[in-house]
Amino acid sequence: MSKAAIRAEAGRLFAAFQAAGAVPVEADLLLPAETMLDLYGEDIRARAYVTTDPLRGEMMLRPDFTVPVVQAHMADGADPARYCYMGEVFRKQEHLGNRASEYLQVGFEVFDRAAPEAADAEVFALFAGLVQGLGLRAVTGDIGILMAAVRGLETTERRRAALLRHIWRPKRFRALLDRFAGRAAVPAGRVALLERLAGGAPEDLIAQAGAFIGLRAPEDIAARAQALIEDSQAAPIKAPEAALLYDLLGLQAPAEAALGHLRGITPLLPAIEPAVDRFAARLQALRARGVAVESLAFEASLGRTSMEYYDGFVFSFHAEGMPAVATGGRYDALTAVLGAGRSIPAVGGIIRPHLVAALRGAV
Which segments constitute the Class II Histidinyl-tRNA synthetase (HisRS)-like catalytic core domain (predicted)? Predict the structure, then answer.
């Protein structure tokens, strides 16, 4: 596949987004690494190209467009607003075989507080139209339902925070849930540490350890030790609550049927009711745009290995044997983090033009 063909496909998609009312925007290739690390933690470092500028400090080659677009919008954007962009992104791909580490991305973002579910439907329908005829499978999900379920668990605030922090790391999330629900034994290393902590106050144990080495202050270590002790004394998550969460994690069904299932478990897990109501409103908006929600795939865990700013509706379009051709979702919380106290509901998505061009060449 030639670069010219990929550029031509990118141009077609970019023009379609502009025709849908989006204002073209640019984003710097080099972004402050501190911002990305604050948002995603050190995990992003393994996937991004990081360098050091003598004046600007640690910088990162653009891993995606959403963060810089949100920053620009929150600084001086109109309300509502629609943006589109086209350009290269850079990600390390060692664990993904021969995928390109530099590739073109074309995207569309909507900032609109009037009707978030209608905006979700607008974005999904636009992307569905652009990839129509390529034989892709569309899948939708809703991270917000899972987050609401975790927030509603009858357990300690610390355990809820740990589960929320690891929603985007499915294996770690499952291991924590298994332990918090009493379905898995406490790791041997933690047991040994708790036995050691039972032998005296953390401050005394730190003093007995000898010379102090490390970046953490003694009071930080003592606080962490106390948190471990308190966690070991917490009651397990009740079996019915845990069972509902396990059920939710594995929910895969046509969207309309999934809504019926979620309505059925809402009385047992009332914290999810507002998120389920939003799901229902979104299906109505999708139906109004001609989307067959009775057959549209829904997976409650979709998006849990994507960028960690999604906190609501998510979607992807797949072809067998390829990475996702198009992905997107809602990221309301990100606008609050980058908005210095201000926020606005936001949803968007990206298309990988090199994959679209490859598929067009095969059909």
Answer: 7-249
Reading the block at residue 252, the tokens are 């895969």
Q: What percent of the chain shows pLDDT beyond 90?
A: 59
DSSP codes, 105-116: EEEEEEE-SS-H
Same domain, 270 and 305: yes
What token pair was written down for 348? 């968007």
Give the span between the Cα atoms of 252 and 299, in whole angstroms. 4
- In the chain, DSSP assigns E strands to 23-24, 30-32, 50-53, 57-61, 81-90, 102-111, 137-142, 252-254, 297-299, 313-318, 326-330, 346-351
Whole-angstrom Cα distance, residue 16 to residue 313?
23
How many domains does the chain contain in total?
2
Do 245 and 292 share a domain, yes or no?
A: yes
Q: Give SS3 for 140.
A: strand
The torsion angle over the Cα atoms of residues 251, 257, 258 and 261, rounded to 10 degrees, is -90
* Any domain includes 153: yes
Q: pTM for this structure?
A: 0.88
Write out the residue range of the structural domain in which residue 210 sits.
Answer: 184-235
Give, in degrees to the nearest 5, the angle at Cα 273 between 271 and 274: 100
Do 56 and 29 form a contact (C-beta atoms < 8 A)?
no
pLDDT digits (tens, 9 = 90+) for 22-52: 999 999 999 888 887 777 766 677 778 888 8
